[in-house]
């Protein structure tokens, strides 16, 4: 394993975990479907950046969460969703729009 990271999309309840593996290139094909649409060759730059990142960053193995941890994570996420919904429901309604004005 080369490294890993976690991120959360703004406003979303889900956490995403990305694991990066460093592979050894044994052979590179001369032709492939994406070759026609590739505008610039950045393979060497990408390889350098990833290698440099791997050398500089402290990496650690991430264990799979236990069933209890996964359940607590889900419950916390659901609690946050429900808390947000309650706050939104307690807000006073705004002025009526043209679509919902009485006739």
Describe the structure in your own words.
Residues 30-90 form the Transposase IS110-like N-terminal domain. The protein has 103 residues and is of the alpha+beta class. Helix content is 37%, strand content 12%. The protein contains 2 helices and 2 strands. It has helices spanning 43-56, 67-90; strands spanning 3-8, 15-20. A two-stranded antiparallel ribbon has the order 1-2. It is elongated, with a radius of gyration of 24 Å.
Number of domains: 1
Distinct helical segment count: 2
Average the pLDDT over all residues and give the rounded result. 77
Percentage beta strand: 5-15%
Shape: elongated
How is the main sheet built?
2 strands, antiparallel
Q: Which percent bin holds the helix content?
A: 25-40%
């Amino acid at each position: 394993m080369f490294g890993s990271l976690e991120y959360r999309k703004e406003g979303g309840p889900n956490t995403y975990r990305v694991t990066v593996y460093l592979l050894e290139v044994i052979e590179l094909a001369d032709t492939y479907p994406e070759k026609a649409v590739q505008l610039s060759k950045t393979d060497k730059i990408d390889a350098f950046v990833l290698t440099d990142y791997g050398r500089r960053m402290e990496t650690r193995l991430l264990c799979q969460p236990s069933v209890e941890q996964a359940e607590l994570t889900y419950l916390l996420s659901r609690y946050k969703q429900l808390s947000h919904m309650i706050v939104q429901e307690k807000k006073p309604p705004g002025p009526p729009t043209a679509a919902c004005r009485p006739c």
